[in-house]
Amino acid sequence: MSIEKPISRRRDVLGVHSIHEFVFSVPDLKQAEHFYRSFGLDVRVETNCLALFTYGHPHRWARVIHGDQKRLLWVTWGIYADDQDAFNKKLNDLGVRRIAAPVGANPDGMWFTGPDGLPQQLLPSEKCSPDTKSPRIFPPEISSSGRAPHRSQVKQVRPNRLSHILVFTADVDSSVQFYSEVLGLRLSDRSGSIIAFMHSQHGSDHHLIAMASSPGCGLHHSSWDVTSFDDVGLGTQQMSQAGYPEGWGVGRHVLGSNYFRYVRDPWGSYSEYSFDIDHIAADLEWPAGDYPPEDALYVWGSPPPDDFTKNYEIGSELQLSKAVAPSETPTIK
What residues contact residue 306 under an 8 Å CB cut-off, 6+ apart? Predict the structure, then answer.
């Protein structure tokens, strides 16, 4: 009996298929190299930057550039090559402001200003978001040698791929509108105007991008898929031994369902080990919900650090436990 191959593209819709790359700056590249190598990423030194890969995967997920401070610089979205003309027309029709490529960026594709003035790019590329849910490893029910990993045989936890990023935004509602109308992303879930999660129509994890309310733009965390719950715990231990004990978790999210450990980096943002996140296939109509604030972060685990939602790129903070009044949605232009 043949097994049907999952579709990797929803027909007759216009939308980005992946986060092709995100780029941010930090004041110390040597420190960044140590942090991300310790985290388990394949860090490669390229001209004037660090390139973040995952072992066994050819895709470059991110770049880290030297700068005066930690700052999210731009996001590149992957699109299908035959959608270029349609996207170009859409950007023009909606009056989206075009810009030149930032210094050090690939000038190809379409560059424009996104929410909060964040430079963004549409680039024809191969789809790197998953078509199916990631493999999951659980201890076998019966084993003559025990079901726990042997401490003497533990190897470095190495994530499989990028799952998503969470960015700060001054207006969650208008950001959802922008990413929906301009990029064709779909709302997965939200908690009022506090936080929202969006996925690709062409199949992706529960969210490619999430937006949390803050007075300005910033990168809160990047999330990296791992294969087992043990990987989350071992990653916690691995980073603590490397000198990065601070963070949040282990715990489990409500929205997205994944088990997590957030590791605080030297600049106040996080990298997340993520296991067993919900997957939204290209042919699935996900029932997006609007949930109370207590469901916005976690179902179990220790409480997050007091400054977990602080945007260190602008030094601001919003408590997700407090309601935020919706603001008037601005136009796309």
Answer: none
CA dist 106 and 75 (Å) reads 11
Helix (H, G, I), strand (E, B) or coil at 54: coil
Using alpha carbons only, give the angle 43, 30, 28 rounded to the nearest 5 degrees: 120
Q: In the CATH scheme, what is the homologous superfamily, with its name and number, of domain 18-129+159-317?
A: 2,3-Dihydroxybiphenyl 1,2-Dioxygenase, domain 1 (3.10.180.10)
Bridge partners for 264 per DSSP: 270
By the 8 A CB rule, do 282 and 203 touch?
yes
The whole-model pTM stands at 0.91
CA count, 13 A, side-chain hemisphere, 99: 17
Helix, strand, or coil (residue 29): helix
* Lowest-confidence region among 138-147, 263-272, 274-283, 323-332: 323-332
> How many C-beta neighbours within 10 Å does residue 269 have?
23
Q: Which of 208, 181, 172 is closest to 293 using CA atoms?
A: 172
What is the Cα–Cα distance from 127 to 165, expressed in whole angstroms?
17
Q: Is the pLDDT of residue 265 over 70?
A: yes
Q: Taking the CB of residue 317, how many other CB atoms lie within 10 A of it?
A: 14
Interval 107-156: pLDDT, tens:
999 999 999 999 999 999 999 999 999 888 887 777 677 788 888 888 99
Q: Are strands 186-191 and 71-79 parallel, antiparallel or unpaired?
A: unpaired
Angle between helices 29-39 and 229-241 (to 10 degrees): 140
DSSP state of 118: -
The rounded distance, in Å, linking the Cα atoms of 93 and 159 is: 40
